[in-house]
């Protein structure tokens, strides 16, 4: 093909557009008017606007991982793009869902809330799936890897909007020592200069010529940076704003480049020059394809050189449509009629002259009653001054209901707005942050006043000079709006509709009905009717709704108030928010130095916090977790096993007052403890609840090392830091995380001493020389190793701390020296089983933040002679010493062949009624449960009310299939209660 | 996102900090001698004013230092930060600050966006 056209597909058909076209402008170029079906009633819809405010023309981009709800009025076309219309089946022209339109009289506001109440189960299985199929927007996108990225800016002044006021502000700041960032939503600067012919000249230059010169000036200014295709979506506290930049405008997103950039901007001053949005009017069938906002019609001609229709009808209540009228006449496109709700006396001379000179049918003091047609406009009916209805054949209608300053970002910044009776809209009244509004966003619709406004509002900035420019406009600058929100509907049929929210299919009848039902507060009314809750946030219609409601309530619009404007201004893709934090980059993975060995030996990993820990090791291909755990744990009890405990948190506590500090942080007493010994210690919160546990090693009174749970290391350190810094800043104590300075191995089992004696052959491991809960620092092959005699399995056991660099070597050496003994590596699941056999607790399993040491019968761990420690006073509060608190017990099934499920309820009564009409009395819950291969039956631990007094009695545990298992309550220590194995 | 001035590092994004609740809640000197009620006041009860609030923050992704701040809870403005151990500023000092964006009443939630006629 030799032409310069860009070809894309819409609903399977190929269309050609020009470079720079949006999907909408290209479709209009091809005379396509019907582009979608509406949310609820499946009514035919067309292109209503020419920008971000579009409520109707939402499409799905098939070749961009099925991206849904893309505004056809914003998205630029490129060669090979595949676009599909939304919410229709089987096709846009013949949509099955349009049956909803026939049923519409019953689908009024609140219909779903009132109708789909029962019977039970119908909502989940019938109503919801049915409604979801017929109502809604596009289909969810396919999975894709986000390539979006984030960028940070710190600037002095942020200018939002590259239209006339934004450019003038930037020009004023050019060459100063302020860092300025100018953000423009479109791909070109210019705003109103590009969208209309309203401005005739600036300083005797043509508007576009002036624009080009100014852009060049700004580009050459070293203190100004310009971002195009970027939309500011959020205005937060402390002048922090976020903006989304589209990096792939008019091109297929590239594989290796980010498609979106999320800019996070911090600024001293924000200049809002983001303009205004035209609003529509409500009349019968104001949603028919062919109805378009007047300024958007003008923008299509000016910016895209597409005339959507050669002979449209113009309907207005203000003077802003003059430029459209003039433009159409200049293009030899004579409007079929000009309908103005105002009296002739209120209409400017220029307009009247133009209408007269070109013999355009003119209807002053008239209104559009409605329009008719099947899938697009065929006829428009006009109520004339004399209240007569006449019908005019036409295929497009350009509507202007007034202009709204785009106050979305201003109110997000917590600025206060005020209703202006003259321009009939809200405009900024008082900034809350360092926010300056310029141009039409500040309610200033008169171009000639802009220069004065800018000079006045920006004069506080050092190094700026007053600008002096002459702006000349085409026609008059009057606005002269007349209040009208809805025209009178002559069609009394139940099916006749006049829309107030096009995207959510809310009609003006819905507003009336909501008020009749008592939803007369605007925030309630919005939620009941879903008005302005679509992806467009009612940009062209929300003020109209306030107007209609204020009339119905006989209140002023100020009294009615607005609903809250919340970020984002515009829908933000999740991929932009996620940025690079996806998949493996979402959260760092921490691996121990032994990780490669684990992989080689078929470990299955478990996530513990950010750590990857071996869960169990597969000895052969089809070994299940249960089989592996039974094998591993039996082997530890019979011979020996080794666990990679490097993930254990380690905190070094040093300083003159270390002893006093440790005494305050833990329940135990460390004063009389001998140096080079260790203690199992509990940490409480001030509320007396267990926070963490670990082993505290005392090197001397000025130096301790404590271990924490793998997941709790950071919290424990910050808990300690908090008290060290805020409560006892006078104590001389320093805290340091040394988790990654040491790899840790736990070796346990009856043969562990034998193995270690072979590895460290100059260390005496005998019970006398190396008793339980002591440690030694030794030199091994020229590196320092700490060996602690401690055990979490109830077997003879040792923990070895070694610098990570040498860890793998030592690990492999240990296996080498125990090759005839068959040392087994075991994972966290086996560790859990082994400790449960001994009744040892796990933080987060036996505790949940509501468990005290007394509840776990760990009274022996509380230093009786200590005057104070964190949480001590709480342990004597009346609620904590109650006898019927939940206490930790062991459970053994009476029939030893049964297994107990973790998390099940413990109950007193063995009969569960077949129909449950009142709550069953619960005693507590099962916290841990395993099948012990050594004991050959199931064991469980549970927290149950008054558990200590229930030892020896029989109670019941529920099962997932509505049954109960009888169990005996025992002390939570199932194996070797005398600790013979531990101390052997 | 707020901009918070760490007294040690300077102004940083809020995401570097963690809030630590009300400041100047003193731990009883002799916990054994206070009543259950007095102890509960220390552990559980916090003032929750609309307006000036003294609170603690920690620069958790920075220098890890704790410090105190004065925040206006109705506007979320951090008016002042100071080091632990420094004398807190008198509340009088903040009398003239804006109560809320729209100057709404002392009690109640939400901020009105529209100026009353």
3D structure, described in words:
The complex is a heterodimer of chains A (984) and B (117). In chain A, 22% of the residues lie in helices and 27% in strands. Chain A is of the alpha+beta class and 984 residues long. In chain A, strands 8, 9, 12, 13, 14, 15 and 28 form a seven-stranded mixed sheet that branches. In chain A, strands 41-42-43-40-34-44 form a six-stranded mixed sheet. A six-stranded antiparallel barrel of chain A has the order 45-48-47-46-49-50. In chain A, helix 19 crosses helix 24. The radius of gyration of chain A is 38 Å and the shape is elongated. In chain B, the strands form two sheets. Chain B has a four-stranded antiparallel sheet, with no helix packed on it. Chain B has a two-stranded antiparallel ribbon with strand order 1-2. The chains are: A alpha+beta (984), B mainly beta (117). Chains A and B meet through strand 26, strand 27 and helix 21 of A and helix 1 of B.
